[in-house]
C-alpha cells in the first residue's frame, strides 16, 4: 500500500481493491479497535444519504463517525428529502458535498454510487446500490473471517441460501478470490450462484463446488456464510414461499461440522439459523455485526486522510 | 454483361472519395448502417448485403461518398462487426485500410441491458470495459453487469 493512497478515495466496489489494499484496510481496522481515538475525526462531518431504508449499515456508520469524534447529518428515507421533489441524484450530491466532508449512501438503483462519486469532489462510500455492491459489508466479512480464523488464505468457505440475489455473497466471493479460497456454494437449484460469478472463478482457476444439501460438504468447511432468502428480491411471492424455509440450521448440524467451523450471517436472519446455535462457539454473526464499527472507522479515517 | 447482353450483376458504383466498410457480417449490415445514421445523410450511400464472402459466408458492404469516419464511428462498428475493415478512398483508390478494433473502454455507444442500471434511470452516458474481445464480453462501469454480443443494443 502506497502512503496516503486512500485519502480522497471513493469506496464503491470491492472490485476496486487489490489484495494489498484489502489487507491494509483490515490492518487499520485492527489498530483502531485496539487503540480507539475519540478525537481523530473532530470537526469532520459525515452525511448519510439513505435513499433506501437500512438500519444496520446506517447505524454502524453513525456510531463509527461519532466514536472518532466526528458529526453526522443526513436522511434515512427519501420521502423526507428533495428526491421526493424530483431532484436528480447528481444534483442532490452536488448540494450535499457543500455541507459535508464525506458521504455514505445507499440507493436502490445499481451504479448510483459510481455516478455519485463522479458528481462529488468529496469521498463517497457505497452502502449498497441495488443488488450490485456493498463493499463495506464485504470488508466487515473479511475482517470477521481473519479475526475468528486467524487467517484469510487457503480456507474452505461455504456460502448457503440465496446465492442468486444475495449481493453479500457475490462481493465476498470476489474478495476471497484473492486468498486461494475453496468455495462450496450450497443452494436450491433455483437460487444458484449466477453464471457470471462462476465464470469469473473459473477464469481465476479457483476451486468451487455447487451442492443442494449442506450435509454433503459441511465436514469440509472452515467458514459457513449463511444468507437470508430475501422476500423483497422475489418477483413472485409463491416462489418465495417455496424457498424461505429451505435451510434451517440447528443443533442437529453439530455432528456434521468441524469443531472450529465459524458460522457467519450478514443479518437480519428470519429463521435460517436457530437461536439454539447462538451460544455455541460456531456462531460469530453478532460479533460480525460489531466488527462493522472498527472497519467503518478505518474507512472513514483513511478516506478523510487522517490515517495514511 | 452476360453473353446474351443482359446484366447479371449489379455493381455498386465506385466512389471518388469517401469510405467503404467491408466484411460486415450480413445480419448486422443494417445495424451498422443505422448506427452511422446513413438514412439522414445527404451523401451518396450504397448498402449491399448477403454478398458472398470467402471468410464470412455472407457479408455486407457500405459505401459512403465524401465522408471519412471519425474514430468514434470506427469504434462503434467494432462492437457489432469486429472483423469489418474500413477503407479510406481517395481518387478512386484505397488510400488506407483500417481494421476495426474494439476499444478497451466503450463509451456512449451501447445501452446497458440492466433496467435497474443508473444509466437507464438518469441521464448518464454509458461506459463499458471490454473484458474479452472474442467472444465479446463487456462490463458496465456503473452497475457492473456483464453483457455478451447477443445482449448488445446500441444507443
The tally of beta strands of chain A, per DSSP, is: 9
Bin the helical content of chain B. Answer: 10-25%
What assembly state would you assign to the polypeptide chains in this entry? Answer: heterodimer
Helical fraction of chain A equals: 25-40%
CATH superfamily of the largest domain in chain A: Aspartate/ornithine carbamoyltransferase
Residue share in β-strands of chain B: 35-45%
* Topology pattern of chain A, helix = H, strand = E: HEHEHEHEHEHEHEEHEHH
- The class by helix and strand makeup of chain B works out as mainly beta
What radius of gyration of chain B results from the CA coordinates?
18 Å
Main β-sheet description of chain A: 5 strands, parallel
CATH first level of the largest domain in chain A: Alpha Beta
Total count of helical runs of at least 4 residues of chain B: 2
> Any idea of the CATH topology of the largest domain in chain B?
Alpha-Beta Plaits
Look up the CATH topology of the largest domain in chain A. Rossmann fold
Rough outline of chain B: elongated
Q: Which two chains touch over the largest interface?
A: A-B, 18 and 16 residues
Q: Structural class, from helix and strand content of chain A?
A: alpha/beta
Euclidean distance between termini CA atoms of chain B: 43 Å
Number of domains of chain A: 2
Mean pLDDT of chain B: 89
CATH superfamily of the largest domain in chain B: Aspartate carbamoyltransferase regulatory subunit, N-terminal domain
